[in-house]
Amino acid sequence: MRAALAGLATTIGLVAVLVSSVLASGTIRVAIVENARVVELRGVSIEVNELRGCCPSGGAWRTDVVRAVAAGQSVEIDGRRASGFRLTSERLIRVSGRDYPAALEVVPNGDGVTVVNELPLEDYVVGVVRAEAGERWPLQMLRAQAIVARTYAAYHRTLNALRPYHIVASTVHQSYVGHVPSSSPVWEAVRDTRGQVLRWGGGLFPAFYHATSGGYTEDPRTVFAARNMPALKAIRDEFSVTAPHSAWSLDLRLVDLAEILRRNGVDVGTVKAVQITERTPSLRVSTLTIHGTRGSARLRGNDLRRMVGYETLKSTLFAVAVDGEKAHFAGRGYGHGVGMSQWGAKAMAEHGYRAEKILEYYYPGTTLGPLDEPLARTSTEPPPPAEPPPSAPFTTAPPW
To answer: What does the alpha-carbon distance between residue 118 and residue 102 come to, in Å, rounded to a whole number?
Structure first.
């Protein structure tokens, strides 16, 4: 009996390894439209099949135009209702002005419908690199971007394995343009790095990246309130100091700031002062206090940025002063500052650094290896001590 159980355990272990390998090199499910009341998909001879259909429909059918409508906990297409539909075609399918390779699934989500693109992971990475970095940047930067995008996607695929989709095709996670022509140089960058990911303590982790650090990267634990954040060392980033948005300014009327706060459930009346009360080790605003005629409110810097708008208040690496009827923000960088600075990586590539060195610089303490390793997992354990790439020490005041 014990021998039989041992043999069974061995068999299960081998199956788990095989499953892990298949999952690692397999497909990913990407939400390209979320919570829409109506969505239209166009193509050539699209085959439509029900997913777990609730009502007789006569089987699959073909059409060039699919109009999907939210119907409670179901989706309706051409008068037929089901818990979802799967669309396949030998040609690309157009959604919201972009072309996507099949298959696509239309499923209910909240009060609307969500369109999910299921495709090979490597093809998805091509679409991400094209969206996030373009085609004209140096090959070594594109290679670094491919590895980081693949790591981020693989982590979320593991995290959301039991959900209808693994990742969202927007800045909620990372942008994705869909189909990329085979002539694009992005394909070369992805092929060169096929299956390569970063690991922290042997496991996958969310390899965040941003547009430009403004000269200082950030420890992810100060930005993202999750238990699985790795203790990446924040560095002084000399390669980002001349990038676009390295320095920026914003004048925000106090009446507009008060209204923004009210819309987000914070009512301090007329704003009188904005005081930075705490900074992170890399000098970003951790907390600030806004004083008004009806009281004061203490906010996280990241929450204020979300309220004002990520594209308006470009980062939390800023100083602020109230003068008359306006709050004057003077800042550096664009994005949360965690992980790789895309513009910094571009500068490094232009200076002759290979992708591997770029990743060592922005993700100190991580290791580069194949995704298909059987022990792939998420991890919060720190890696063994490693000598980080050169970085200058932080100052004690904002760098402006």
So the answer is: 7
Rounded to whole angstroms, the Cα distance separating 263 from 353 reads: 46
Beta bridge partners of 46: 63
Dist CA 68 CA 65 (whole Å): 10
Distance between CA atoms of residues 105 and 116, nearest Å: 5
Tell me the C-alpha distance between 203 and 156, whole Å: 13
Rounded Cα distance, 53 and 207, in Å: 38
Give the C-alpha separation, 41 to 64, whole Å: 8
CB within 8 A of 182, min separation 6: which ones?
Answer: none
Digit-coded pLDDT (tens) for 161-186: 999 999 999 988 999 999 999 999 99
| Residue of 24 and 80 predicted with greater confidence | 80
Which candidate, 165, 166, 321, places its Cα nearest to that of 251?
321
The residues near 195 (Cβ < 8 Å, ≥ 6 apart) are 24, 25, 122, 150, 370, 371, 372
Token pair of 119 as six digits: 């495709």
Report the length, in residues, of the chain.
Answer: 400
Average pLDDT, the chain: 87
- State the DSSP H helix or E strand holding residue 350, giving kind and residue range, or none if neither: helix 342-350
The tokens describing 332, both together, are 């550096």
Distance of CA 126 to the CA centre of its chain: 15
Alpha carbon of residue 281 to chain centroid: 24
Q: Is 242 left (phi over 0), alpha (psi -120 to 50) or beta?
A: alpha
Residue 218 CA, distance from chain mean position: 16
Q: Are 141 and 349 in contact (CB under 8 A)?
A: yes
Contact 338, 223 (CB under 8 A): yes
* Summary count for the chain: helices (H), strands (E): 8, 21
Beta strands 340-341 and 209-210, pairing class: parallel
Question: Do 331 and 312 contact (CB within 8 A), yes or no?
Answer: no
Alpha-carbon span 205 to 156, nearest angstrom: 9
Give the up-direction half-sphere exposure of residue 146: CA atoms within 13 A in the CB hemisphere.
Answer: 31
